[in-house]
Specification:
Elements lengths: L2 H11 L6 H7 L1 H17 L3 H15 L2 E2 L4 E2 L4 E3 L5 E2 L4 E2 L4 E3 L3 E3 L11 E2 L4 E2 L4 E3 L3 E2 L4 E2 L4 E2 L7 E4 L4 E5 L2 E2 L12 H38 L4 E2 L11 E2 L9 E7 L2 E8 L5 E6 L2 E6 L2 E10 L4 E2 L2 E5 L26 H11 L7 E5 L6 H18 L4 E5 L5 H10 L3 E3 L7 H7 L5 H15 L4 E7 L5 H13 L3 E6 L7 H8 L7 H17 L10 H5 L12
Parallel strand pairs: 1-4, 2-5, 3-6, 4-7, 5-8, 6-9, 7-10, 8-11, 9-12, 10-13, 12-14, 17-20, 17-21, 25-26, 26-27, 27-28, 28-29, 29-30
Antiparallel strand pairs: 14-15, 15-16, 18-19, 19-20, 19-23, 21-22, 22-23, 24-25
Amino acid sequence: MSWKDDVNTVLERDPAPRSFGEALMFSPGLHAIFLYRTSHRLYEKGQYKLARAINYASRVLTGTDIHPGAKIGKGFFIDHATGVVIGETAEIGDNVSIFQGVTLGGVSTSKEKRHPTIGNDVVIGSNATVLGNIIIGAGSKIGAGSVVVKDVPPNSTVVGVPGKVIKVDGRKEAPEATVAPLPDPLAHTLDEVRRAIAGLDSRLNDIEERIMHTADKKATLLLSGPVKIPQDMELPFRASCSTAGPGAGSTGIVLAFEGTRVKKAVSRDRGDFELVPNGGTYSLCRDGEVFIEEVKIEPVVFHAPEQAFFNLDNRCIYGCSFCASPLLEESQEKGHTPEKVMRMIVEAHHKVGFDAVAITSGVPDTAERTVERIAEVVRGVREALPSVTIGVEPYISEMEQIDLLKEAGADEIKLNIETYDRGIFEKVCGKKDYDLILRSIEHAVEVFGRGRVTSNIIIGLGESDENVLQGVEHLAEIGSVATLRALRTNNMNRNALASEIGSVRPVDKDRLLRLVRAQKDILERHGLSTLTFETMCNRCGCCDIVPFVDIR
């Protein structure tokens, strides 16, 4: 076969060249065949190095790699040429056409016939791969991108990975007819991914169920009465007597279980639950049955785990009807001066786990003077313990007071709106300014930053769920995180609440959990989280269901 026959083959099968000369000069596949035929003649004469040198030059010039040892018949056509690889023991019959990217490769390293045999009149589409010592029957067509590893009958059409025979002699084959029993690697990988995802979904569902089960138990504890402890039981840590917050006036301990914790009032005489020693740990029982199998008693620094949480003064001129702090007996008042608090904090910083300070106060005289006392403590702590994180919980009457607390060294601030229902606010906190509090929260975000400002919204004052979530949304829009707190009633505040808002219905556990789940969704939508807080209630988590901690 002469070189002219190879040029004519190009003219017959490629419509692009318009003349013999154009085909001769500008067809890289043709040039690859020319160079192959030269190298093959040298190879058969034993001039292997020279043959390989021409083969190498062909690869550089045309982008094809045809081993000189391959046997190729007449009428061979390579379209576009780039990326074609033909191995040493490959045999190609007459009038075969292949396109760019085709590989006729081997699957063995032994020095024997290890490459395909291609029958006459075969067409192999671009990027197809034919591997091993197999036979592709005459007149067959291999679809673009197919991978063929087994013999193909004559006059067949093959497509896919692995290659599947879809036609023989023009007749469609059954779908299961396949060139190779080789498993589909992509399908296998996808199956593994699906199984892994299904397993993860199952595990996540299990985890979510456990978390919700734990949150349900915590909500039950938060909304119930005290824990009875045995008369002769000695607590491993000193109980805490709070003058602020939900537990004001009660003596309590922190119980940790299943990744969460709750602060509960304790009594040696009566309780809704009973703490039962259990070989180094404790069980919590209710009505004679185990409610939580294993609980631990956690130490507090001052009134909170990991934090020195101080109330400078429980007296308050505003007299919010839900707040028990101003109603404490004189024997329960701590009488903490700023100097005493600073000294106690500095002494406490050696305690295990101590890493935060929180300062709050009632307003015994004016908001201005109270803020100045809080700022005095903050400055003293900041000077003595420059690396400790400090949170403050004041009532303010001027925006400048927020700036003062920040300048003193506070890192976080809590400004309580208490309820987003203006009508209820005016009944239970009538001496306070609803609009001033909202403006102060907005200003505090400007001063302290997003995710550094929080505010209590009390649940159980007669507000609607819609109103609660409107409040959460409003606060989130300005960059503040609400703390949803269930109303706690006792002998000190029950009558005052009844006179202002009528009879008080206990907060329902399901309602509390439902609202906190909705709150979490709102916070996520606004890019906020309780996890950014390092002080006060979101960090402590003992008195509330905390999104991202108890609800995830």
